[in-house]
Amino acid sequence: MFFHGTARVNGQSHLEIGGMDTVELAKQFGTPVYVYDVALIRERARGFRQTFEELGVKSQVAYASKAFSSIAMIQLAEEEGLSLDVVSGGELYTALAAEFPVERIHFHGNNKSREELEMALHYGVGCIVVDNFDELELLKSVCENKNTKTKILLRVTPGIEAHTHDYILTGQEDSKFGFDLQNGQAEAALKQAISTPWLETLGIHCHIGSQIFETTGFILAAEKIFEKLSIWKKELAYEPAVLNLGGGFGIRYTDEDAPIAASKYVEEIISEVKKLAGSYQMEMPEIWIEPGRSLVGDAGTTLYKTGSRKDVPNVRHYLAVDGGMSDNIRPALYQAKYEAVLANRPLEKAEETVSIAGKCCESGDMLIWDLPLPKAEREDLLAVFCTGAYGYSMANNYNRIPRPPVVFVENGEARLVVKRESFEDLIRLDLPLQEKIKN
Prior knowledge:
With 439 residues, this protein is an alpha/beta fold. The chain contains twelve helices and 24 strands. Residues 34-388 form the Orn/DAP/Arg decarboxylase 2 C-terminal domain.
């Protein structure tokens, strides 16, 4: 079994994370519970940020908070010198509540409302990533009404799609995000933006995919963008101060995954951008990237108690846990794969293969298929690894199941950073049916 970060087996033969026995964590905070290895988050953040510093390249490493947003997480990102990527008024509100420096907030999204743009301008976010012509006009209108200038990036689709070890060259006109680089949309948007006195067009943004284990896609995207930038330099006298190559850096969920180090991504991106800037006789832009999953994904572990079993002779053994698609919907959404151990006896030899079922009333609520485990008993403790990204952030109240708490562990200390929802929380916004008017 491959353990991430500070995870290890302690002297009690229990799984330990951040110096904390997971059996004791389950007793203290209940289950299900998300446990985050803070030291690993810090290590990942420094792997990206310090490489830029060591190579002397101006940069911003923005945490893509959609992966996991909470006040404590945003404060941790600030401690590590990161910038912040938000995609909604709610994520921006969380960042403001965490007192994150607004000048390091980048506001993304393909359908920002007028109210969200007004909120961003009111608080003075550092940059708005403009996604389409409609937003360009709306932002111009909001700026005029508020008599406020703002900085923007233009999001483009460069014709590169990347996932794991594969990359595809496409026209990519059929995307809900960004201005297409090949069909003239991006150039038209740039002309419109630089002619608008209310907008300062810092540069170009792209995002090519997720769970990317190679640098090839980023290099190809940079090449496509610089080809256009060279034309825009001649025809529009425009050079970007910033080139944002997005995120999508992969993590290891199972043995099938083989990610590379954060420093490797950064080194090769820097090398390519330097080469391209030199070959096109352009100034070296500031490089921005947006890691999300790669900062928090493998730092998160969800602890469950095991419950009922269903044994189908010659077919399958089902083992149910006290959570499921309400706290991790990724397996149901797109067949995401995970590894797990019995945290209270991780060294015991596997005796059977079971499939981990959630407790939701939905046949698709299966967390892991065909997991080798020791013979599991009721109220064993199952630890599912790498649930730190898109677990809590996509959690839901299906079947009116309260969302689990979030606990940060570091150096032998545990801190509750998100409380467990109560049944009272579930009905807090509910209103009763009005009584009928009596005759």
